[in-house]
Amino acid sequence: MNHRLLFLGPPGAGKGTQAQRLSEHHQLLHLSTGDLLRAEVKAASDLGKQVEAVMARGELVSDALVLAIVGERLKTHAKGWLLDGFPRNLAQAEALDDLLGGLEQPLQRVLLMELDDETLVSRLLNRGRTDDTEEVIRHRLNVYREQTAPLIQHYEALRLLSRVPSHGSVEEVAREVEMVLGSPS
Length: 185
Ligand code: AP5
Known about the structure:
Shape: globular
Strand content: 5-15%
Radius of gyration: 16 Å
Helix content: 55-70%
Distance between the termini: 11 Å
Bound molecules: BIS(adenosine)-5'-pentaphosphate
CATH topology: Rossmann fold
Number of helices: 9
Strand order of the largest sheet: 2-3-1-4-5
């Protein structure tokens, strides 16, 4: 199986859920920028204080901050990793391409998790994280469409993208993920 992977998709599509399962199964580093940023907020670090309000509004944190967090971790983990929630816009994707090119560890597969908006919203309202109010969820969806969705074309052009229908149960989607990973890109 490829071991340098990226999960792409709207908020609530199940990126974190599937990334965690897969990384445990295959001993990959699960690198979630959302989790890393929330840990900084919880620790009330300088970085956490800078990003808290931005995250609460459902906006994207600055590229420079996110790149610093990710770059350090990728450099020290050559075995295999799974990116979840990063990159989030073309600038981050291009910076990632450069970083991985320098490390001679190119991305091998991008899994696009696809799900309709109403199911996304209802999953997130059920979860109830602080940024899971209906207003902020709808804003995150708009941010996704405007800034993150262009990455679909970017990775299609690089012939790295595979689509994962994500409306089934967690186990059903996990089977879809394994099936996609078992097939040639
Ligand atoms: P982030 O933490 O990345 O949030 P997100 O993209 O909005 O993604 P979610 O965690 O909401 O959804 P998910 O697809 O991971 O779904 P999950 O598996 O959790 O980002 C949060 C914020 O951080 C951003 O708004 C931004 O401010 C900042 N940020 C993060 N990365 C950044 C970056 N690179 N650049 C700039 N800013 C950045 O599942 C959702 C729920 O559904 C869970 O309750 C789960 O249990 C449930 N569920 C999952 N799968 C299923 C299923 N198959 N059936 C039923 N329920 C399911």
